[in-house]
Amino acid sequence: MHVSPPVKQNSAVASGCKTYHCGTLTYTKAGLFILFAWLLWGDFCFTMMEAVVPSIMPLKMKALGCPNWLMGAILTAAPGVISMTVGPYVSFKSDRYRSRWGRRIPFIIWSMPFLCICLALLGFSDDLCILLRNNSEYLRQYAPTSITIALVAFFLVMFKLFDMFVNSVFWYLFNDVVPVQFLSRFMGAFRIVGTGASALYNCFIFKYAGTHMREILVGASLLYLIGFGMACLMIKEGQYPPPNEEERKASKGLRGVITFFQESFSHKFYWFRFFHTSFAAFGYAISTFSIFFNQEMGMSLAQIGYIGALSSVVQMAAMYFMAIFVDRWHPIRICTYGAIFGALGSAMAMVWIFVTIPGTYFFWLNMGNAFIGAFMAALVGVAGLPCEMRIFPKSRFGQFCSAQAMLRNGFTVVAGVLAGLFIDAVKIFYGSDFAYRFIFTWMAAFTGISAVFMVYAYREWYRLGGDKHFHPPAPWNPSGMEEMPVVSIIGPQTKWLNVFFLLFDWIMILSTAVVPVVMCWMYAQHKLLAFKWHGLLILPLEILALILWLVLKSSMRRDIHAAQNGLPLKNGIPHHGMLIIFASKFLLAIGIWVCQVIVCVMLDMQYGSIVFSLANAITNFLLIGTIYLLCRIERGNSVTVDEKPEIESETPEMPVAA
User: Fold this and answer.
1) What separation, in Å, do the N-terminal and C-terminal C-alpha atoms of the chain show?
2) Fewer CB atoms < 10 Å away: N or C end of the chain?
3) pLDDT digits (tens, 9 = 90+) for 439-473
4) b/e string for 65-81 if b means 16 or more Cβ within 10 A?
5) Which CATH number applies to 263-488?
6) Is the whole model's pTM more than 0.90, yes or no?
7) Degrees to nearest 5, angle at CA 180 with 176 and 184
8) Angstrom distance (rounded) from CA 154 to CA 122
9) What CATH number does the domain located at 40-242 have?
10) Three-class SS state of 22
11) CA dihedral of 355, 361, 362, 366, whole degrees rounded to 10
12) Local structure of 27: helix, strand or coil
């Protein structure tokens, strides 16, 4: 970087300074600190800019009367097409580009002015509509709203086009300039800064989206131009060997396309991972309409912003602690467990189809949910990019990331239109904005499919070596794999599994014990309908769930005992780390359930109290099923406990591939 140039190794050694290397770059501690500072400042500006469009544009287009299917096409499908086509091209070219500024930053710098202009013009779409209609006889025959929608769509598509140059290379820059031993810690800091930027936006800016949309868009444009531009100018990339003649030929024209597809889709392990992220994107494409769900539940824009801000702040604190566990537990394990728990969470949210509570209560209950889910969300969020760094070949990291993005965005294109059509179809039966409650049905279905593919990828990862011997499949190498450093992990530990058992015992015991207590209170409040169904249905279900858990726990303990004595296991042993986070979340969620029941009884919503209690009982059965599923997933692979991680020898810096 310009303010901290690469250190000459001889002088550093002579002065006794400890240095860190990444390719041809060498840093002192001070230089590394400055590098992190500029990268994180760039991330802050980038995140603030990226947060504006997806949060504001749905409000703008709904105010213009844009149909849901068209909104989905403009906001999701069109950007998906751009990502699917432009993203791989830019990634492929940036890997092979050479300049005095590096191979990534030039793509960001040259697209920056055009991106900022398009972003700012989104704020002036109404004024431009008036100007065009006043100076064009032809355009006067069209409604102003139609012209404005067309202008918004055009500027948004152009914005996404130039934004794709940034999104295609910004993430690869970290792998190029950050020393490998600091990548996980950097990603933790990176997520904290990005989450903090989101919190500031949601808390202080988003509530003005309806009245000061133009100012927000122009301000985001200027912040990105000045702030992110400064960061790019101050960061220095290393030097890379030029591609040889054979590589040049293989990267040109049709042959380059063939090479790209043959290598990127060469092994089923990559297919499983690609389909996982693709179906996850398909499921979350409908989240474009989540703001309308919150409004339908009675929340204001300010309240929605406050919840987003709280989630961000709590996740920031959580990320500080969670980042250190990513390498200790292995990011692919965190992503796999997280995918399963995420699908479960989407299914649980479907309870809002069946019950409605006043907006103020809904706001506070959502605040509580945001708090208790922060640690799991932080851990899974931090693990995403390190997972790809650990499973994709380092020599072709950008290529594999872009191949994954291409398939994922192909799914997003389809999902953007279908999600809007799905909402419109539900509106036929339910009318008004009640249809937005069904977004969780969509999300549960497709995140469930996504989790299945992640499980297949996880099992294949085990087959390819797992924690101790995995190397990415690489058919272009004679050995069929690409050698990469293997980072030692901490496997299942008996003492921490016992902590999980204790936490889950309390989930089951409290879920059962709370029911008679609330029944007594219901009887005293003369809520006899709720009292009757809690006694006839809820209490028996909770007792049955407790019995099933005790049976499963006994089976897991037998497997742990067998592992300690080197005997065959009936199933496998899930990792303690995610289980503890998982159990802690749902233990705290019992408090949310009790609050839901109390609110419903106080508001004379007996049906609502029954629904919430039934949902809690069903959730407990799903939790038990999820734990059993994890035992089966680990079967034949996780068969030891209490192993101490091996002390790794320092891995020499690998040369950067062309």
Assistant:
1) 21
2) C
3) 999 999 999 999 999 999 999 999 999 888 899 99
4) ebebbebbbbbbbbbbb
5) 1.20.1250.20
6) no
7) 105
8) 9
9) 1.20.1250
10) strand
11) -130
12) strand
